[in-house]
Amino acid sequence: MDVGKSLSRIDFFMLAAVFVLMFLGVMFIYSSGISSIGVNTSNEYVKQVVRIISGLFVLVFFSLYDIEKIKSISLITYLFLIFVLIYTRLFGTLVNGARSWIYVGGFVFQPSEFTKLTTILFLGKYLDDNQKDIRSLKVFITSFIIISIPFGLILLQPDMGTASVYIPIFLAMLFISGCNIKYLTYLILLGALTLVLTMLPGWETYILQSNNTFVSVLTEPRLILYLIGSITFSILLSLIGLLYFKKEYFNWLIYFFSIIVFSLILSFVAREYVLKDYQIMRLIVFMNPQVDPLNFGWNIIQATTAVGSGGFSGKGFLQGTQSHYQFLPEQSTDFIFSILSEELGFLGALLVFGLFLIILIRGLLILTYAKNNFSILVGSGIIGMIFFHVILNVGMNIGLMPITGIPLFFLSYGGSSLWTALAGIGILQGIYQRRYRN
Predict the structure, then answer these.
(1) Could you give the C-alpha distances from 119 to 46, 122, 274, 404, in angstroms and in order?
(2) To 10 degrees, what angle do helices 181-202 and 248-269 make?
(3) Rounded to whole angstroms, how far apart are CA atoms 180 and 372?
(4) Cβ–Cβ under 8 Å, residues 203 and 195
(5) Which domain holds residue 8?
(6) Using CA of residue 353, residue 359, residue 365, residue 368, what is the dihedral sign?
(7) Other Cβ atoms closer than 10 A to 76
(8) Residue 200 lies in a domain
(9) Which biological processes are named by the entry's GO terms (predicted)?
(10) Cα–Cα distance for residue pair 314/421, rounded to 1 Å
(11) Is the dihedral of CA 404, 405, 406, 408 positive or negative?
């Protein structure tokens, strides 16, 4: 066996960045368990070491397993995890208000984490098999259904943070596949407008604190119905105009009017039937944490305080106050970045950003070496998943994103998210190792 050739097929830069991040994770999971009097109150760091060791087997397995074989079983794994998500929703363990966990043989798992990868693999297979019709509306809608099933099931748990990860996965894979940009733009505009309309009533109540005529329409079902009806009538007129006059601007009128109608419907459904009160309040305190500083705004205020107090070089390892005095909730998971930034400062945060940048850049380079379209699609989904986790987690730690309870890959305490991330890295390594094969 040619050892030199085997080693040349490993992306050491990516692996080194992953190992350093996991080492930092163990360090600050340990720090999060130290009390104000210097006593260790948690063994989470020991559990995380065990999870890292087991996760390395996951990484090696996926790097050695041929991605073409993974493709052949992608539908089975996708359907199996969908079934597990349904089971979790019905019989899973309730933790922090969400039924997202199941116990198997004394171990606890979060199936929604693993479903990210199975969805990426199956969506990649579907897009690859339908590459000739990739710009068709049929392929776009079918792809959207593939991603919407796990998205909806996870949203019902309810776990808005994990569900939101499926959006960038979908956008990244569809963009790389060559999908019609007009369809992707439609989805982005629809999502953005739905989010704004969902937040507006809370913005009026808690931040504006005065009545606004337009916002009042959004909270009255009868008025919403009238508004939807009038815009739908405009769509019908535009459709008639398109059929008779064949002018392109009628197409665009239908395009934008339909976005408004669907966003009105979705925002009403989200407020009334999908989102819980605490989830809506998370969006409100994102705009102004002082609306509820001792309850829903507490997390974001304490997290930004920890990050800011670290200064340029930090207070020193184990010298942080926000975590050791237990001001930070979920500090070993959602807010691990705040602990790191307080104790290592801006330089520590810069180190974390640099390590993730190495992973993302090397991931993009691996895609240029991929020998088939399926590998490129799957790789783009994995990169999109990692990128969004970093942006959303760091963003909520520094007050630029709403609190969603999403972990920071490789650093946050937890097995399911770590194994998912390492499996993704393993798949990227597998693509890189097979770059010379025909």
Answers:
(1) 31, 5, 22, 21
(2) 40
(3) 21
(4) no
(5) 3-433
(6) negative
(7) 11
(8) yes
(9) cell division; cell wall organization; peptidoglycan biosynthetic process; regulation of cell shape
(10) 28
(11) positive
Taking alpha carbons only, the member of 239, 275, 223, 263 closest to residue 98 is 275
Q: Does residue 9 lie in a domain region?
A: yes
Interior/surface letters 241-277, b for 16+ CB within 10 angstroms, e for the rest: bbeeeeeeebeebbeebbbbbebbebbbebbeeebee
Three-state secondary structure along 276-330?
CHHHHHHHHHHHCHHHCCCCCCHHHHHHHHHHHHCCCCCCCCCCCCCCCCCCCCC
Q: What is the pTM of this model?
A: 0.89
Terminal-residue alpha carbon distance, the chain: 20
Q: What is the DSSP letter of 413?
A: S
Taking the C-alpha atoms of residue 163 and residue 29, their distance in angstroms, rounded to an integer, is: 25
* CA atoms 307, 313, 316, 318: torsion sign: positive
Q: Determine, yes or no, domain membership for 221.
A: yes
How long, in residues, is the chain? 438
pLDDT tens digits, 293-347: 767 777 788 888 888 888 898 898 888 887 777 777 778 888 899 999 999 999 9
Q: What is the CA radius of gyration of the chain?
A: 23
Instruction: Please state, in angstroms and rounded to a whole number, the distance separating the CA atoms of residues 128 and 134.
Output: 9
Question: 5-45: per-residue pLDDT in tens?
Answer: 545 578 899 999 999 999 999 999 999 888 777 777 888 89
> With the C-alpha atoms ordered 393, 395, 398, 403, is the resulting torsion angle positive or negative?
negative
Residue 104: how many other CB atoms lie within 10 Å: 7
Asked if the structure places residue 438 within a domain, the reply is no
* CB hemisphere CA count around 129 (13 angstroms): 14
